[in-house]
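WARN  no MSA supplied for this record, continuing single-sequence
INFO  ligand: adenosine-5'-diphosphate
INFO  echoing inputs
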Amino acid sequence: MSRPEAGGPEKHESCMASITLSKLNKHYGALHHAVKDVDLTIADREFVALVGPSGCGKSTTLRMIAGLEDISGGEIRIGERVVNHLPPRDRDVAMVFQNYALYQHMSVYDNLAFGLRNKKISEAEIKAAIDRAAEILGLHDLMKRRPRQLSGGQQQRVALGRCIVRNPVAFLFDEPLSNLDAKLRAQMRIEIKRLHAQVPTTSVFVTHDQVEAMTLGDRVVVMRDGRVQQAGTPLVVYNNPVNRFVAGFIGAPAMNFLDVTIRREGVVLVAQSAAVKLAITEPSGEALAAWIDRPVVMGVRPEHLVLGGDGVLSRSFQANVEVVEQLGSEILLETRVGQARVTVARVAPETQLAAGDQVRLSVQPGRLHFFDPNSEAAITA
Ligand code: ADP
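INFO  complex generated
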């Protein structure tokens, strides 16, 4: 990577960088191991979303990249530079926080200029950098206002603008949309995506919201209990979750899980319980040959179940409707299948159904997932 040392707005095209985490660890005191052996390379210009439930170590990972948290073990490289012991200001990354962190007593213009003035850049250059950021984010009409005179979305745009003018090697986002209402979150998501298309800077975005992660990330990194579970494109983590946790975390409504036993019936394998008996036509069927007469966990997403038997009885089963949720665009059904609760999505809104009805549900081809009941790893071919 070749880039000038001085941090000025003119350096833009040359300041990209990858971020490499190697065996990254964080201990808080003797007892708490918050980040465990994280290996991850974020490519130059890539947008990676770190996602997982609260407490899984995603913010700690981000804060270690930023230099706001010491690391307990491993290595962090930004570009070619090992930054383990560099203070945050020397890492040339910009962080966007949930609470915006704007200076309340300064105008929007001065908020945007603040970081650059500290670097002793000429006012003309500062103005050029601010004009460009304002153009990208639509901030021109807000320049004279104070942060308290702005809506939450506008404040978040100013916070983004402050990152853009600094022209950093990477953007680090720590749950930046959590304070916004649902509609504004969706809008800001699109703005961030648009921003990344216009200013394709290496980005790491921390969120507990899998929809945010899926929609924003070139790649989604799912964490649990300090460890990376899976890193892949949104479609890969959706279609090929490596374990039951990822399968249940990615996708809404969440994947249904049923306890079944694998049996051989002539030339086919079936997944069987007291309530279901399904022919396995999935590619993972081959791997299931090792599981004959053993219990496994079967997973199927709500959107991969369809109402009706279609005559292919070997891929359908009976369910009792317990709750009908009319969303206008679709119906969500909560059903019971033996002991298991099974959600069905994308039922046509005009479908006449009520609690207590019996329905038949078919599984779309290729959509069954199977997991080892002990390790919870996906059973794949
Ligand atoms: P996330 O961002 O995924 O919600 P964090 O990275 O904030 O999770 O925290 C990971 C784990 O480390 C949590 O169990 C949290 O309680 C713990 N932790 C975070 N910060 C500290 C701290 N300063 N001291 C002790 N434990 C901490």
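The mean pLDDT is 91.
INFO  checksum written, moving to next record
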